[in-house]
Structures are given as structure tokens and as C-alpha cells.
Hints:
Elements: E1 4-6, E2 12-16, E3 35-36, E4 39-40, H1 41-44, H2 47-52, H3 54-70, H4 75-87, E5 91-95, H5 101-105, E6 110-112, E7 115-122, E8 131-132, E9 152-156, H6 166-175, E10 178-182, H7 194-200, E11 204-209, E12 221-224, H8 227-230, E13 235-237
Parallel strand pairs: 1-13, 2-5, 2-10, 5-6, 10-11, 11-12
Antiparallel strand pairs: 3-4, 7-8, 7-9
Bound molecules: nicotinamide-adenine-dinucleotide.
Nicotinamide-adenine-dinucleotide binds at residues 17-23, 26, 28-30, 36, 96-99, 114, 182-185, 187-188, 209-211, 213, 226-227.
Amino acid sequence: MAAISVSGKDRVFVLTGAGISAESGLPTFRASDGLWAGHRIEDVCTPEAWQRNPWRVWEFYSGRRADGAKAEPNPAHFALAELEAKLGERFFLCTQNVDDLHERAGSVRLVHMHGELAKSRCENECGRAPVEDRTIYTSLDEVGRCACGGLLRPHIVFFGEIPLEMDRIQEEIGKATLMVVVGTSGSVYPAANFVHWARLGGARTVYVGPEAPLNAAAFTHVVEGKAGEVLLGLFQVG
Length: 238
Ligand code: NAD
């Protein structure tokens, strides 16, 4: 497909999903029947799973931390960091990913709407800020407690919980003239609705990934291909 022109007046909102980290070796969520790295979401990524068996949840996220530490950003992460360097505050990145590959590629203006693997926070939501925590736990006894007594849990938005930073995300979508969505199946809400919000505001909307997402009809362009191959050279910044 021809390059997408980004003019001096454009404001770009990018939404990324698990697909952008696939070429870094991190498995996507939908790669095999709704499993994530061989686990059922209901067992490891819901408030009920945490109540039932916090160690099972920590064991899963410790595994994701170990995988994340071994992974490196790929050309798609670098292409978005490069676009940000050109556009400055006219660029905003929202990722559904919990890995830190965007930051490691150089992205700065970004939010993690589903949380961050490298942080933990109090299970009681007592108001204390999440803390940096890259520990790969081998038993629940090693997991620390908050000053209020609550057990530390991964700083991850479990399925059924409200995503983070929604006010800022809505504000940035409202200002965007171009939305670029990369590597997300369009099945997890509210992220799957962002393209509709952008269209309501009159923005152009582009999807990049090897197959059309479930919400493909809402995009003005669908560019089929791997993010690492498509994104470099996709934007012509005027
Ligand atoms: P998903 O697994 O539902 O969909 C992945 C999408 O990526 C698919 O549409 C697939 O076609 C596409 N894809 C595969 N390879 C690609 C490539 N090389 N380039 C571009 N696209 C590619 O993912 P989702 O929609 O992001 O939802 C899953 C949820 O699970 C997310 O909310 C996220 O929090 C979590 N998750 C995070 C990670 C991570 O942090 N790396 C990994 C897995 C799941």
C-alpha cells in the first residue's frame, strides 16, 4: 500500500496489541483458542482467579516477566518511536500490552491501559501507588505485602476490571486526526471501540496486522502484513 501521509496539522493516536510484540517472541493472546502462553484466562487473569489462588496468578505472571526480560523490541516498536520523535506532542501511544518493549524502543508519550508487568500493587486498592517489581517469584511466601497489610498483586488489569488512564485516552482520541491500530484482534473492550470513537471525530483510521481484525469495517484502511515489516516506511511525514 502507498505510504500514509502525516501532515503538519495531523495528531496521531496509536493503539497497539499483543501482535506488535509477536515478532519479539512474545505469544499473542488469541494465538491458540483464547489461551495465553498455554493458560486459560479464567485461571490466571481474573479477580476470581486471584481470590481463589493468588499463587497460580503470580506463577503465571512470573513466567511472563521471565519471557519479557528475554525479549527485545522489534522494528515495529522502533518505527513507532521514530514517528514520535518526528511528531513530538502530536503523537500519543496507548498499548494494551503489559510488556515494556515500547519504552525500551524509545517511546515516551505512552500509557499502558492494561497495566505493566514490571510493577506490583496492593490487592486492597488502598491508594498507594504501584511499585517497580521485576521479581520472578518461585513461591507465594516470597511475595511482599503493602504497608496496609494487603498482599502485592501484579499491576495488571484483570479481565472484568476497568482499564487505566481512560480519561486521558478519551481526550487524546478526541484530538486525533489519524488513528493507527496495530496487532490487536478487536475482541477486547473498550479498546475495540477506540476506532469508532475516532471515526465519530472524523479521523482517518488505519489497521496494521497479518489478518483483518473483528472490527475491520470501522477502518478506512486495513494494511495486511506483519507489523515489523509494514510499519517502517508506512508514514510519510510532511
Ligand atoms: P490478541 O491476541 O487478541 O490478538 C493479537 C492480534 O495480533 C491478532 O489479530 C493477530 O492477527 C495479530 N498479529 C499476530 N502477529 C502479528 C504481527 N507480526 N504483526 C501485527 N499483528 C500481528 O491480542 P489483543 O487484541 O492485544 O488482546 C489480548 C490481551 O491480552 C491484551 O489486552 C493484553 O493485555 C494481553 N496480552 C499482552 C501481551 C504482551 O504484553 N506482549 C501478550 C499477550 C496478551
